[in-house]
Amino acid sequence: MNVDGKKYRTIWLAEDGGSVEIIDQTRFPHTFETIRLHTMEDAAHAIRFMQVRGAPLIGATAAYGVALAMRTDASDDNLHAACSSLLETRPTAVNLQWALDKARRTLVRLAPEIREEAAFKLANDICDEDIAINMAIGMHGMELIAAISRLKRAGEPVNILTHCNAGWLATVDWGTATAPIYMSHDGGIPVHVWVDETRPRNQGAFLTAWELGQHGVPHTVIVDNAGGHLMQHGEVDIVITGTDRTTATGDVCNKIGTYLKALAAKDNSVPFYVALPSPTIDFSLSDGIRQIPIEERGGEEVSRITGRTSTGEIETVDIVADGSPVGNPAFDVTPARLVTGLITERGVLEANRKAIADAFPERVRASA
Predict the structure, then answer these.
(1) 244 an active-site residue?
(2) Which of 237, 244, 251, 332 is catalytic?
(3) Which CATH number describes the domain made up of 2-128?
(4) pTM of the predicted model over 0.90
């Protein structure tokens, strides 16, 4: 996607051919900075401290982390140690494990002297595959938006509500939930996006709003609890979110607060869709509420907030009463019964075991 007219991916091989560059997402929305990853430890730090975030981008970064590890030591011991260290960084996003399993399976069969080159090629391939998948998701999702648009008066926008960031900043390019939005906008379909702020890290206000603005997509930032009110008054035509892990039965794990949006959508007959690349489907799980591990992040994310002052300075301030304990579950699970459909690279699927298995039979066989 474009940033001030320049084409960017969220992660790419640096010009030196031996390090990796990323966009530092902890600096948004007030600063655009890129940083360079030289070691596996740099990649692990970037994932753990959310300099990169979003399940597909986490997976891509992990793959590059393995490649950086192979650059310094291509032994079996270091391969397994690197995969183990990277796996510990974020427990919820299944793309992380998917990318590491793929790297381990590919590299362990190769002689150590050719592992570095193979690891970097694999990471590049994972990035290219992610872009192709997201483009396909965009095309299938655009058909849903176009169908709604045909029912509206000429020029009236389709109002789409999002939660968290499932944009190109969460992937290598295009995004999952935003790909249909960008393609609809570029294709001349009028759209307007309600952007949930997404407390506590404000990925909607900081990231989604920023990238939509860069692309020229009309949008409005709203507080997380405004979505139900807008649905009650007919101001939301469709909800599209992303996901960090989806079970074989269609339960969806996404940023905390997604479940409440799905409940409000169900109560107001607003279609609730989840855009997901197939690597996000965990075919080993059937019950999302009981089986998906929910990351509990530090309370300071809730009790403190960073912003720009009237003098232009970036400051972090406390916003919670002194002495009050803070809980911070980072994700929740939306049961399949509340999901209208799953927008995948192979089409829009019903959120149930049969539909998912029929669309991705090779993934089912691999998980058996």
Answers:
(1) yes
(2) 244
(3) 1.20.120.420
(4) yes
